[in-house]
Design a protein that fits this description.
The protein is an alpha/beta fold and 152 residues long. It has one domain: Phosphoglycerate mutase-like (Rossmann fold, 3-Layer(aba) Sandwich), CATH 3.40.50. It is built from 4 helices and 6 strands. The protein has a 6-stranded mixed sheet, sandwiched between helices. β2, α2 and β3 form a beta-alpha-beta unit. The radius of gyration is 14 Å and the shape is globular.
């Protein structure tokens, strides 16, 4: 099973944090990321985002461009301060490959906890997508990082 974990696209400044929209550069980055993921036949069954506007917009764009079969939806587990255990529970309940869209530092921490029992720094610039793969049960520290795709 694959857990795709993305940081929202580049967002505008000058808004209340909850309402910051993604920028045109952010849209371009997600288009490029989606093209690459599609080229390699990576297609999640679900896109689940933080309720913050920039994450919702990023997830909706990924879902549209990658032709994800289910409508994207939000979950508070992905808003700032979320826990990787919540993502694991969601994944187990849906039993499918999922693209999660969240925020720093959480997305980097989630990837770290899924692939290791030791904290290490994973750089997640806006629009970065990491893929953690599990051959069996989803157990923290037992996944392997298949790729970390940064916008270019």
């Amino acid at each position: 099973m694959k857990l795709l974990i993305a940081r929202h696209a580049l967002a505008a400044s000058g808004y209340p944090d909850f309402d910051r929209p993604i920028t045109e550069r952010g849209v371009k980055d997600i288009r490029n990321q989606s093209d690459i993921l599609t080229k390699y036949k990576i297609k999640p069954a679900y896109v689940i985002t933080s309720p913050l506007k920039r994450a919702v917009q990023t997830g909706a764009l990924f879902a549209k461009l990658m032709d994800v079969p289910n409508a994207p939806f939000t979950d508070r587990a992905l808003q700032p301060g979320g826990f990787v255990d919540d993502l694991i529970m969601i994944t187990k309940s849906l039993n499918a490959d999922i693209l999660f869209v969240g925020h720093l530092p959480d997305v980097a921490n989630h990837v770290t906890h899924l692939v290791s029992h030791v904290n290490f720094n994973v750089e997640f610039s806006p629009g970065t997508v990491g893929c953690v793969n599990f051959d069996g049960d989803i157990i923290p520290g037992r996944g392997y990082l298949e790729f970390l795709l940064k916008p270019f």
